[in-house]
Amino acid sequence: MALRRVVVTGLGAITPLGKTVAEYWDGLSRGVSGAAPITRFDASKFKTRFACEVKGYNPDDYFERKEGRKMDLFTQFAIIASDQAIADAGLAEGVDKDRVGVIWGSGIGGLRTFQEECIAFGRGDGTPRFNPFFIPKMIADSSSGNISIKHGFRGPNFVTTSACASSSDSIIAAFNYIRLNMADVVVTGGSEAAITEAGVGGFNAIKAMSERNDAPELASRPYDKERDGFVLGEGAGALILEEYEHAKARGAKIYAELLGGGLSSDAYHITAPDPDGNGVVLVMQNALRDAGIKPSDVDYINTHGTSTPLGDGAEVKAIQKVFGEDAYKLNISSTKSMTGHLLGGAGAIEALASILAIQHNLVPPTINHFTDDPELDSRLNFTFNQAQEREVNIAISNTFGFGGHNTSVVFGKVRD
């Protein structure tokens, strides 16, 4: 059976850099940091007291109060981003909703809801008094379920959970459902809202996050010698994936083509990356093979690039192994330097960054570079500190998660 072609026909975003795709791209292209002191709770006693929050967010701007109280923040973000993408793609009329799916990604789900309910129970007298919306708000698949219910989409519906690779895995799952003729359109992407006491405290406990509290905007610095951990982010990104002929038949605008994807496992450690990058080598090789392209065809890699000492180095080693001399012709950048790390939502907003780089022929920067790391090859173009104009025909988005989950997604300009 011939595999069907898959294109991107709609985008949506709510991020630390802005609450629309246009605002997000403006922040990326200008090299804006989304990091600032935490406002969601009193973080004064925490080792890390800053994060990349969605600025000025008020659920009443998007939901009726009664409706909003039934959803955890990560689901609110999912609905906001997906609504934008659905409107952008013009899916309101003229599509067979039996053939439209929703495949979403979240690494944690309703952490705020879980935390609040457990604290309330612990402060009580032991009598079990729980909110009837506790479980529906907490479970990760409430995001895809709510999107489906709101729009009446009756196709495949589920959530992928693979830590920080979750939303990249949701994109590949959606891609496969369409090219195998199990759906014509899929709303996909991911969301996360883990800036809570439990989220920050938990990541502090494993020494994963930056503690540069005196200068939050300078804290996320992938590939810099002085990097000291990631900065936690929140938000959502959404893509409408659609079968190519279906999109053409209804006159949809097409942002890019999804050419292929790769999956692999480090099979090494629950939190640490394989220092030699073997799993990352394998995932990029798999992605290139699936897309039917050569290393020399790739113009830009939006790296996982979390700003951790071990992870950044392992990914760079892997890129050099896979691309050889062609690695020096690439642009490489980590947009986490601006957005922070959205965990399960990271792959979605970074897929958007890759698609927009193709659209605008502009590579967003890796900001906050001050000191070269002698362990990293300085001949590589990390797109430090300023965006760079270049023809971007093919871009790869890499995301890796705790547990050794590796995912690479390949986007390209649409081929006739």
TrEMBL record:
Q: Which SMART domains match?
A: PKS_KS
This protein's species is Hymenobacter gummosus
| Active site positions | C164 (for beta-ketoacyl synthase activity)
Q: Spell out the GO cellular component terms annotated for this protein, sorted alphabetically and separated by semicolons.
A: cytosol
**Keywords noted in UniProt:** Acyltransferase, Fatty acid biosynthesis, Fatty acid metabolism, Lipid biosynthesis, Lipid metabolism, Transferase
For this protein, the Enzyme Commission number is 2.3.1.179
Task: State the family named in the UniProt similarity comment for this chain.
Answer: Belongs to the thiolase-like superfamily. Beta-ketoacyl-ACP synthases family.
Known pathway: Lipid metabolism; fatty acid biosynthesis
Cited CDD domains: KAS_I_II
Q: Which residues form the Ketosynthase family 3 (KS3) domain?
A: 3-413
Q: Which gene encodes it?
A: fabF
Origin superkingdom: Bacteria
Task: Tell me what reaction this enzyme catalyses.
Answer: a fatty acyl-[ACP] + malonyl-[ACP] + H(+) = a 3-oxoacyl-[ACP] + holo-[ACP] + CO2; (9Z)-hexadecenoyl-[ACP] + malonyl-[ACP] + H(+) = 3-oxo-(11Z)-octadecenoyl-[ACP] + holo-[ACP] + CO2
The cross-references to SUPFAM superfamilies, in alphabetical order and at most eight, read:
Thiolase-like
What's this protein's name? 3-oxoacyl-[acyl-carrier-protein] synthase 2
- What's its top-level EC category? transferase
Q: What does this protein do?
A: Involved in the type II fatty acid elongation cycle. Catalyzes the elongation of a wide range of acyl-ACP by the addition of two carbons from malonyl-ACP to an acyl acceptor. Can efficiently catalyze the conversion of palmitoleoyl-ACP (cis-hexadec-9-enoyl-ACP) to cis-vaccenoyl-ACP (cis-octadec-11-enoyl-ACP), an essential step in the thermal regulation of fatty acid composition.
One MF term in the entry's GO annotations: 3-oxoacyl-[acyl-carrier-protein] synthase activity
Q: Name one GO biological process term.
A: fatty acid biosynthetic process
